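step=predict obj=GM20170 n=439
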Amino acid sequence: MGSLTGVQTSRSFSDIWMDYYNKFRGTGPFAGFYWFQRPGILVLDISLAKLILIKEFNKFTDRGFYHNTEDDPLSGQLFLLDGQKWKSMRSKLSSTFTSAMEKSPIVEVKDILARFTTDVIGTCAFGIECSSLKDPEAEFRVMGRRAIFEQRHGPIGIAFINSFQNLARRLHMKITLEEAEHFFLRIVRETVAFREENNIRRNDFMDQLIDLKNSPLTKSESGESVNLTIEEMAAQAFVFFGAGFETSSTTMGFALYELAQHQDIQDRVREECQEVIGKCNGEITYESMKDMVYLDQVISETLRLYTVLPVLNRECLEDYEVPGHPKYVIKKGMPVLIPCGAMHRDEKLYANPNTFNPDNFSPERVKERDSVEWLPFGDGPRNCIGMRFGQMQARIGLAFLINKFKFSVCDQTTIPIVYSKKTFLISSETGIFLKVERV
């Protein structure tokens, strides 16, 4: 497992990045790190992170993740693609992304929020009504949850695939859960067929994909124009699901977790929500979200403390001499890891970094700060394509809940939080239990 020894058993991924960053920071621009069996680097200097993500992006465009579209169609999603395929798909999808609480006094909010985001994404990406909030065992919710959290391989299989990607492709190894692959392919096929047969347009994400299927708009590696296949459409719909589902629901859950512990901050958010919603005749609108400045600060601070994807992966495309450090050379083909979650808790970047403080993101402080000091969505041309969609989903969900409910800690609330050791993403191991009361 290289530097990842103990992952999924005794250590969470977040703990690994934090431990290595704290151990080596200040020793140089980067430290050596084994990404499974591949020698790579762990970035320690925020200025080097900026070069990799933005200024020298052309030398680090790929993420270097395993994908095998011939055997595993859903691995052809935007997050995993590299080279010309990523560039072409990104440019075509960008415009699309731009745009049950009272049953018990003690509620596990993480699951309810995940069901909310599942319903939103089911409507926006697939054009279907999922009804996950009403039925926790709705098919879309169950398969979506399995696709995100269940892995096809154990730690050894994951290590093999990431260490020997070309061999894994020759062995026809897949990473997507088979049942999830069949489900998402079926949903997309049925949706496309129904819309085309009945001449239906909703001007949503699926319509954008149908347009790409029917028009040669994307570029292959050879530069020729090609149409999207059903398999490629399913892969991009799947990344829409991943981009909106986990980031939004996890962020909302951790935001409520912190607000339950800081009632003064929760009261201030509620006052802002009630004032803004009151001006809009009691409705939450897209335009009104822009006026919820303090709520946005709360979300940004939550993403700093609980960075859902705590490390950014890149791959060096050519030998790269680090500016100002001639003896430091990143070799071609090396994995490059930027531990953004650990950087977010560096006292050199944020005073009292382990304290929840939305004022870290007041307009004045944001202006003073370099953009790469806050990286929950990455930065540069390969930042998260679903950033705005995910943030808006979190704003709307939190505004609705805080306007109507008060959240408090209870005996079942785990303080401090314990992270799951099973997933690359930040997640609570035991759920987030809070006391919920109507305002």
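step=describe
Residues 147 and 180 are 5 Å apart (CA to CA).
step=end
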